[in-house]
Design brief:
The structure holds 2 protein chains of 2 kinds.
Chain A lengths: L2 H5 L20 E4 L2 E5 L5 E6 L7 H21 L7 H10 L3 H10 L1 E6 L5 E7 L2 E6 L5 E6 L16
Antiparallel strand pairs in A: 1-2, 2-3, 4-5, 5-6, 6-7
Chain B lengths: L5 H12 L6 H7 L4 H7 L3 H14 L11 H15 L7 E6 L10 E7 L4 E8 L5 E6 L14 H8 L2 E3 L1 H8 L9 E2 L1
The chains are: A alpha+beta, B alpha+beta.
């Protein structure tokens, strides 16, 4: 691709070259991957370099694969509040929804806690409803309230908020 | 024969173990889902080991995140649980179910289940204001209650049944029946 094509895609019209004040297309040549432009003084001045071009389809495949792996790794390594199988069962048993859990995590107070085996946990509490989240992997571990059991609801059932 | 059954003992054991680290009253009901599977696996140490590893995994507890050797820990727990199977226990299991869609105005069921013969032997239905509105006892040859097709596993895994004590069940069983007469089938 010639320099003229980069600056203007019309054919044969004059090109405004800014402070240089050219009124017609300048004379450009390419030598060893660099573009040179003939100045008003008649000398050739370097004007730019040709971009790198993949000379083999293998390069394109390698670049695409690298990009795909990189985005997958970044997705997997970022902590997300996803829900363990155990917690999903507790949701159903205790009348909590995902939206409830998000609300508790957003509006509730957060304290650090630990599991029996020393895993760090966030314990969010909002209006006597508690969500426990594993700090390391972001998983919701369980959810409960401090409501006692009644004849119609089990212990730990959601306290409306 | 003791007053506790194996389901109650395993549930008590899991509540005391409490891998998540919960308030005791929540731990008492947190792990009930896993009880039938563990009871099934009790006779075989290898099955029990696999079952307990799966239990911890479902709770999100993995070897990569903890300092203790989980494999050794689970072996110790399996040994302790297997000892429960050797003590004298009652074959009656007592359950409480709160149905999502109450039928016949029953808002909670109390069930006595004969684990040896795999059948419901007694059931009590409680109305929305806490009164006993149905009460039935089933003989072996006439097991025709509305729960007769269900196993303990079904009750716990499908209906989130809570394992309760014999005393709690008997207290409800001995309450006066309201509206419906007690039937002995």
């Amino acid at each position: 691709m010639m320099f003229n094509d980069l600056m203007h895609d019309g054919g044969g019209d004059d090109v405004n070259m800014g402070s240089k004040g050219y009124t017609s297309a300048p004379e450009v040549k390419e030598v060893g991957g660099s573009y040179y432009m003939k100045g008003a003084d008649g000398n050739w001045h370097i004007a730019g370099e040709r971009g790198l071009v993949s000379t083999s389809p293998e390069f394109a495949i390698v670049f695409l694969a690298r990009a795909a792996i990189s985005s997958c790794l970044s997705f997997l390594s970022s902590p997300k509040p996803y829900i363990s199988d155990h917690a999903l069962e507790r949701f159903a048993q205790r009348g909590f929804t995902r939206e409830d859990v998000v609300t508790i995590m957003k509006k509730g107070t957060r304290k650090m806690g630990k599991s029996k085996y020393g895993e760090r946990q966030y314990r969010y509490t909002y209006r006597n409803n508690t969500v426990i989240q594993n700090v390391n992997n972001g998983k919701i571990v369980t959810v409960f309230s401090n409501a006692p059991k009644t004849s119609t609801t089990p212990r730990g059932y959601k306290i409306p908020f | 024969m003791g007053t506790k059954n194996i389901y109650q003992c395993v549930n008590d054991y899991l509540a005391k173990w409490d891998p998540i680290g919960l308030p005791q009253e929540i731990a008492d009901v947190e792990y009930v889902d896993y009880v039938p599977g563990i009871v099934e696996a009790l006779p075989n140490k290898r099955d029990l080991y696999t079952c307990l590893m799966s239990f911890l995994s479902k709770l999100g507890i993995n070897q990569d995140d903890v300092r203790v050797d989980l494999s050794e820990e689970v072996k110790t727990r399996a040994d302790e649980l297997m000892k429960l199977n050797t003590i004298s226990l009652s074959h009656e299991v007592y359950l409480k179910i709160i149905p999502n869609n109450p039928q016949k105005n029953v808002h909670s069921w109390y069930i006595a289940y004969d684990d040896e013969n795999d059948r419901v032997c007694r059931e009590v239905g409680i109305g929305d204001t806490g009164e006993v509105i149905t009460k039935e006892s089933f003989l072996v040859s006439h097991n025709c209650g509305i729960h007769s097709h269900l196993s303990i596993k079904d009750f716990i895994e499908r209906f989130y049944a809570e394992i309760i004590s014999k005393e709690e069940f008997e207290a409800v069983w001995n309450e006066e029946l309201v509206k419906v007469k007690k039937e002995i089938l």
